[in-house]
């Protein structure tokens, strides 16, 4: 087997336990991951072979959502839990539609932040792009830091992107209130784009496998939690839902862009186990 060279690790990185940002990077074919993450990923694939396709379908949804927003004229984005940069990053998709588009990335994982910094130093424009290391569970702090960068104009609509992230907030954490707090600080006309893992509506044969994956993640530094469709819908309370509303990730406007992984679930989009939605703040 080819040896993958280990990337240089930022000082505060936890290499004792696998981490969601780095495992996800491995699922997507990236190189910002360590042996401990790859071993975890390989075990997850053994348990549930479609897991990489599911991760890719989620990433595709992110791309289509950002393209939709950019086409509606949204030209600034706050991407929380942005992850390790890979193909189709938010600022790239937005810029392809609106050349002046702006984006602030936020992640609490030092590797994701370091890789985003490198990418932005190479390809970014200082007044239009920034990355912050921070925990999205502190909305006021994150919002102040994001606006302090000068990249975002808080008086104009912003696309708040929280894709593939909210399931890392525990069921006992005030996840809905956290998102509400962000939305309360955003101007009218802003949008909230999100997705969430669920077991609700997922067909029985693979529910057991999903339960095993869930167990495996409990031993990582980033356990995740399923939420039901009703629980996910609560994040959108008070927003105008954009068609097709809350639904499965592969079904969300596949015509808008990359949807190859999602197409592999055609006929059974619940196989993605990922619900998504886009809401507009009136
Ligand atoms: C599955 S990845 C999704 C990345 C990207 N949003 C996407 O859709 O491709 C989840 C990301 O959320 C980050 N994350 C998890 N909990 C977080 C928190 N409390 N604050 C900030 N980032 C967080 C992880 O470090 C990871 O990079």
TrEMBL record:
SUPFAM superfamilies registered for this protein in UniProt: S-adenosyl-L-methionine-dependent methyltransferases (SSF53335)
Keywords: Methyltransferase, Transferase
GO terms of molecular function: methyltransferase activity
InterPro entries for the chain: SAM-dependent_MTases_sf (IPR029063), SAM_dep_MeTrfase_SAV2177_type (IPR006764)
Pfam families: Methyltransf_19 (PF04672)
Methyltransferase is among the record's keywords: yes
Gene Ontology biological-process entries: methylation
Residues forming coiled coils: none
Superkingdom: Bacteria
Gene3D superfamilies: Vaccinia Virus protein VP39
Protein name from the UniProt record: O-methyltransferase involved in polyketide biosynthesis
Organism per entry: Amycolatopsis sulphurea
Lineage: Bacteria, Bacillati, Actinomycetota, Actinomycetes, Pseudonocardiales
